Amino acid sequence: MSDKAILEIGGEKYELPTYTGTENEKAIDISKLRGTTNGVITIDPGYKNTGACVSGITFLEGDKGILRYRGYSIEELAAKADFLEVAYLLIFGELPNQEEYDRFHSDIKKKSIVDEDVRKIIDAFPKTAHPMGVLSSLTSALTAFNPSSVNVDSEEDMYNSVVKILGKFPVLVAWTMRKKQGLPLDYGDTSLGYVENVLKMMFRQPHEEYVISPILSNALNKLLILHADHEQNCSTSTVRIVGSSHAGLFASLSAGISALWGPLHGGANQAVLEMLKAIQEDGGDTAKYMAKAKDKNDPFRLMGFGHRVYKNFDPRATIIKVAADEVLGDLGVDDPILDIAKGLEQEALNDPYFVDRKLYPNVDFYSGIIYRAMGIPTEMFTVMFALGRLPGWIAQWREMRLMKEPIGRPRQIYTGATERAFIPVEKR
Ligand code: CMC
User: Fold this and answer.
1) Could you tell which of 362, 365, 381, 382 is best to mutate to test the pocket of ligand 1, judged by most ligand atoms within 8 Å of the CB?
2) DSSP assigned state of 380
3) Which residues pair with 20 in a beta bridge?
4) pLDDT digits (tens, 9 = 90+) for 232-267
5) Is 265 a catalytic residue?
6) pLDDT tens-place string over residues 412-427
7) What is the rounded distance in angstroms from the CA atom of residue 428 to the CA atom of residue 423?
8) Does position 270 have pLDDT exceeding 80, yes or no?
9) Is the pTM for the entire model greater than 0.85?
10) Is 227 a catalytic residue?
């Protein structure tokens, strides 16, 4: 947009520069607004109209259902790529050649050992602890075991931190689940691919050999790719803003995990399955839940529906719905919950409440059904989302630091009491 934006406040006109992205997205640059207007700021709760940064990682066009990582469509990546090459792409900007891929994978494997003392921390959590709380704590605790901070001006230092967290994180994921299940904590098998190793670390039983199922590894590979990045969502913005204070990578990721946990964000995948189970136990009465979701006096929302940015369809949901059918078919699982989900989707797609508000199934509507078929416990679903989102968070953190972004510090408009005198307690 070559035009300037003109803003008029109290009869005074201000010219504001504009900004155009590579996909022709347009923005008004308000970075100097406060200074030039003598204190006027913008207000936008929930940041529905605020671009927090410029970024070259992920492009998302909600109205058309487009999602691309570094220019590659999500459809193509989900169908053809391997999660680790997508991670490399997101973090470093290009798909790796074979040599780069092998070195990346080998370095990740070398760094995958987690200090034995971390087991003592896991032991201290009650079995009832939610895995997202455990994972966030363990990720933060990694800082204590790897105290050197990242010198962001050193490419080598940055690379080492990236491979370290990509190596250790799946171990923490697997240990979090195994601890809850009372299984011994151990490492996987470095002869395997990244995704296959995750499965083995999670599911290997102590008394038997673990045989990798290509159905499960393909399904997990796809799910992780679909979740790998989603530009400036709640958890990614958290990672960027925490990192903007120059807090370390692991501390920033730990904050991102906490943000992801909420049911309006990543926690929706657990909430969806719990909702579908509740509908099933209630005799499959989807109409009752549709009515609850539409009732403004009822806080219930149809979990897995709606998205801040996608107002047409979520391309990830389209891919995942097909994958759910395939995986359940391949595994020979006949899950009545899938039928309930499909029924609910049809009802919502034909209901004026959902149509008018442009509420469509999002990525999490069907992901839980696949995770369930894979034998992953419901409480672990959001942890699996975190495992997928890890490269996106790392890429965004790295970009933010390399661009030398200033500390994130929003403004506010104060609406509280004006100045008043203190009254001693006996006189109140
Ligand atoms: N069920 C019923 N009503 C809904 C729903 C829903 N799932 N989502 C939005 N609405 C209504 C909302 O009540 C509002 O109605 P009205 O205009 O009459 O007040 C309108 O739709 C707009 O909703 P909003 O809350 O202003 O929209 P938002 O962009 O702020 O919220 C959302 C987006 C995803 C938080 C929301 O749609 C939601 O809570 N969905 C359910 C949770 C969910 O599935 N989250 C996963 C998101 S995808 C995974 C991820 O990337 O995190």
Assistant:
1) 362
2) G
3) 26
4) 999 999 999 999 999 999 999 999 999 999 999 999
5) no
6) 999 999 999 999 999 9
7) 6
8) yes
9) yes
10) no
